[in-house]
Amino acid sequence: MIRSYTDYPLQKHHTFGTSATARYYFEFTETEDMKGFLATNREWKNHEILILGEGSNLLFINDFQGLIINPNIPGISIAYEDRNNIWLEVGAGVKWDDLVEYAVFNGWGGIENLSLIPGKVGAAAVQNIGAYGMEIQTQIESVSGIDLETQTEITFEESECEYSYRDSIFKNKLKNRFIITSVSIKLDKFPEFILNYGDLKTETEKHGAINLRNIRKAVIAIRESKLPDPKVYGNAGSFFKNPVVETPVADQLLATYPKMPQYPGSVNTRKLAAGWLIEQCGWKGFRRGDAGVHEKQALVLVNYGKASGKEIFDLSEEIRQSVQERFGVELEREVNVIGSLP
Ligand SMILES: Cc1cc2nc3c(=O)[nH]c(=O)nc-3n(C[C@H](O)[C@H](O)[C@H](O)COP(=O)(O)OP(=O)(O)OC[C@H]3O[C@@H](n4cnc5c(N)ncnc54)[C@H](O)[C@@H]3O)c2cc1C
After folding, report:
1. Residue burial 5-24, b: 16+ Cβ < 10 Å; e: rest
2. Does the reported pTM lie above 0.85?
3. Where are the domains of the chain?
4. Which fold has domain 2-71?
5. 44 falls in which pLDDT band (50, 70, 90)?
6. Ligand 1, residues 31, 72, 126: which to mutate, most atoms within 8 A of Cβ?
7. Which CATH fold topology does 76-226 show?
8. What is the mean pLDDT of residues 85-95?
């Protein structure tokens, strides 16, 4: 199925819910549709491209003047299985949490801690989504799609995806150039549970035995108690990444701020909690007009109703600046800002 529009309203296609339009919009459900579009609409090359999933990690600061491509490809199928593992081929347009529910229902582990993360499967492979001690990269076998530059279908093995914390080749070199159409995900028939993050173990035990279904229930309960539902208040989850600093910098910060939470990072680095830094600067619960900082989670910026993308963006810049001034730490955005500033 194909849907193609001009001057298309995007408000329902992203979770901040701010008002914006796309000059051109193309949605498809089969890879062949996209190939046909590229072959017959040569002028697409003149436009800026944005590949869209569910829009749960985007902030539009003005109307998008280019072409939005939405690869809304459905389907979960079993590609292969052996005694210990099962490999699923999943369409880029499948809702991420539908996949988690399907895996947990069948008793296959590896993604249960990633329950209730909004978005589509294609974007999950772009973002290297993570939560409660799990990252999707460990379960990804390969990622397939169409390279717009060469107009060929390519499959990247996991080792070629350049994964790191909330990062991948698809967010950098191949950003808006490679349309992910499907992802191959490897799940475990005899999973080892990861429960050492926050209060996940205690919360799981409240639901009974430690098993996949109860871990999923616990993750959902924790997330629902801490994070605003985008259907109620527009948001895109964590607005900033947790900053990673060199160990000597982390030590110096700890000497000045002994209560600062720090977590082990990769070699000679530590991860800081962006939410804590923002809260210390007094932003938690702040609201200006309809743009604000969530009252329970300072890392989440919120559209309380009619905020514009620009108002939310301006607030985020003020927050970034105040954290820089107070702690000397640079916050990097996790949310993709779309559009240009005047
Ligand atoms: C309430 C809330 C909680 C959240 N919690 C978490 C969390 O715990 N952990 C976490 O990691 N994230 C979290 N997020 C962020 C978000 O859900 C993820 O980043 C998600 O993977 C985005 O999926 P999407 O389909 O909405 O992608 P979009 O926002 O539409 O796109 C994200 C990026 O991926 C690109 N993209 C999308 N689809 C494709 C494709 N098929 N091919 C190529 N590029 C593509 C886009 O161009 C864009 O750069 C949260 C968001 C919200 C609103």
Report:
1. eeebebeebbbbbbebbbbb
2. yes
3. 2-71, 76-226, 234-338
4. 3.30.43
5. confident
6. 126
7. 3.30.465
8. 98
